[in-house]
């Protein structure tokens, strides 16, 4: 059986190299190449590949957001995240969104082909070193709502602006951010955002 694969990465060199090398595998067919997350989601809904290989971080829409979208409309599509980000929180976020594979960009095309076959058979795969790092780091102390609010404030926007984005009152946002800073042992929300980004929690 031929496994239909969709690739998405905003780095053209990586996208082209993976596409060419995977296409050389007899049982793999690259049915689409997307240069961003929005395009990847649209192509996946239209082409319904067996496996999507997604870059974690793309400017318009990250791989995790694409996975969440596809879980709602095409849950049969299995997704593998390829990333240069090694912070442990990214792995947890990807798996909770529904990713079936999580590997570094240093993975060779041959290895990726093997992982695609595994994921297509229903066998999840996580890079062992990334899994070990995630286990040693522990889970994020932030709730999903706290992580969302911290992400909305991470660009340094005034509290009133963050409140508008979160559809909350400024006082509620201040309370959230104060609690978040306490959980992360940070002096303020800016330091909290830095800590959370470093860990991959936002």
Give a structural overview.
With 202 residues, this protein is α/β, with parallel strands linked by helices. The chain has 2 domains: 3-137, Rossmann fold (3-Layer(aba) Sandwich), CATH 3.40.50; 144-199, Winged helix-like DNA-binding domain superfamily/Winged helix DNA-binding domain (Arc Repressor Mutant, subunit A, Orthogonal Bundle). It has 10 helices and 6 strands, in the order E-H-E-H-E-H-E-H-E-H-E-H-H-H-H-H. Helix 7 (144-153) packs across helix 10 (189-199). The longest helix has 14 residues, at 170-183. The termini are far apart.
Strand order of the largest sheet: 2-1-3-4-5-6
How many distinct domains?
2
Give start-end ranges of low-pLDDT stretches. Answer: none
The percent of residues in helical segments reads: 40-55%
**Global Rg:** 18 Å
The average pLDDT is 89
Shape: elongated
Structural class: alpha/beta
- How big a fraction of the residues is strand? 5-15%
**Helix/strand order, N-terminal first:** EHEHEHEHEHEHHHHH
| Number of distinct beta strands | 6
Number of helices: 10
């Amino acid at each position: 059986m031929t496994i239909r694969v969709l690739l998405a990465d905003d780095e053209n060199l990586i996208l082209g190299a993976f596409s060419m090398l995977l296409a050389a595998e007899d049982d793999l067919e690259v049915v689409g190449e997307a240069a961003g997350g929005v395009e990847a989601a649209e192509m996946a809904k239209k082409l319904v590949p067996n496996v999507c290989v997604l870059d974690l971080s793309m400017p318009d829409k990250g791989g995790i957001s694409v996975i969440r979208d596809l879980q709602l409309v095409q849950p049969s599509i299995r997704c593998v995240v390829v990333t240069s980000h090694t912070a442990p929180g990214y792995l947890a976020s990807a798996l909770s969104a529904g990713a079936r594979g999580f590997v570094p960009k240093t993975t060779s095309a041959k290895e990726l082909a093997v992982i695609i076959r595994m994921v297509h058979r229903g066998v999840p795969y996580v890079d062992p070193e990334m899994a070990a790092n995630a286990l040693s780091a522990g889970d994020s102390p932030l709730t999903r709502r706290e992580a969302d609010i911290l992400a909305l404030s991470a660009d340094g926007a005034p509290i009133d602006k963050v409140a508008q984005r979160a559809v909350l009152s400024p006082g509620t946002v201040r309370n959230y951010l104060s609690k978040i800073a306490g959980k992360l042992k940070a002096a303020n929300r800016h330091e909290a955002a830095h800590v959370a980004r470093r860990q991959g929690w936002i």
